[in-house]
Specification:
alpha/beta, Rossmann fold, Helicase, Ruva Protein, domain 3, 2 domains, two-stranded antiparallel ribbon
Length: 286
């Protein structure tokens, strides 16, 4: 049966039949606007040779649109209360598979190898709960999974931060990490009225094209991200103060390194370009 999963009454009836109540702790807000998920699925540009990994399918409204376009869709869901719901709403799609568990604890490289062996390319698509947005995106990028693209819906403020140009006031540590591993952009915005229950903030759909290799060569990634995290942890402080406090470097060492890059001792993290952060890491850690 082809359910209209954007119809409030239909979804309410299905959830009620399975005794489901929304969980604030899991950040559950289901889409009820019938234009959002088709647009997301279209912009993913999936075809019969594409495998799609979805995180948190909810009642399956986005999943259904992905199944119409992709060769195979594998959705990872933590909430066991939704398992019978998804079995009902996606019963018509034989290219759908549900993986039960926590996406942060599953070996995704192994999962992709097993589930998408016949697919030419693999992409990630999801309507992410706000509370796990950054951890999930960072895990997907840092794991260096064999995926070409990540398209996710996140809180609008988070989207602006994730896609902020390095060296802008909006940029933070997560902006640097996303830029290091990929190329990001905001695709479109989604109002709070498009969800059930309605959240207190608006959302945005972003796309990250995953780089085959980082654009900048970093000698030691652990040291690089340690410096980035320290630099942006206390944004109002100068780099001299923030890095000397957290990295165990003297203020003289940091000042000298900045001078070698042609930067003033009063510079803050938000003023640095990507190459500045890379070069500063090499200078401070040798």
């Amino acid at each position: 049966m082809d359910y209209n999963l954007c119809d409030y009454n239909t979804v309410k009836k299905i959830l009620s039949a399975h005794g489901f109540n929304f969980s604030k702790a899991l950040g559950q807000n289901f889409i009820i606007d019938d234009s959002v998920c088709p647009t997301m699925a279209e912009m993913l540009k999936a075809d019969e040779k594409t495998g799609v990994l979805e995180v948190g399918p909810g009642v399956g409204v986005l999943t259904k649109e992905l199944c119409k376009r992709a060769g195979k869709v594998v959705s990872v869901e933590l909430d066991e209360r939704l398992y019978p719901v998804l079995e009902q709403t996606l019963a018509d799609y034989d290219n759908f598979e549900l993986v039960k568990g926590d996406v942060m604890k599953i070996d995704l490289k192994q999962l992709i190898a097993e589930k998408f062996a016949d697919c030419k390319t693999v992409k990630v698509c999801a309507n992410l709960p706000y509370y796990i947005t950054s951890p999930v995106i960072m895990m997907l990028l840092q794991s260096r999974l064999p995926v070409s693209e990540i398209e996710v819906m996140v809180q609008q403020e988070a989207a602006e931060r994730l896609c902020a140009p390095i060296g802008s006031r909006e940029a933070g540590a997560v902006s640097v990490a996303v830029n290091y591993y990929g190329e990001s952009e905001i695709l479109f915005n989604v109002g709070r009225e498009c969800f059930m229950p309605s959240p207190k903030v608006d959302s945005s759909v972003i796309k990250i094209i995953v780089r085959d290799e980082p654009e900048f060569e970093v000698k030691n990634e652990k040291q690089f991200f340690s410096l980035v995290k320290s630099a942006f942890a206390q944004r109002r402080k100068t780099l001299v103060n923030s890095l000397s406090n957290s990295l165990g470097k003297s203020k003289a060492d940091v000042t000298n390194a900045l001078a070698q890059l042609g930067l003033a001792s009063t510079v803050r993290a938000e003023n640095l370009k990507m190459e500045d952060l890379v070069n500063l890491t090499d200078l401070l850690f040798g």
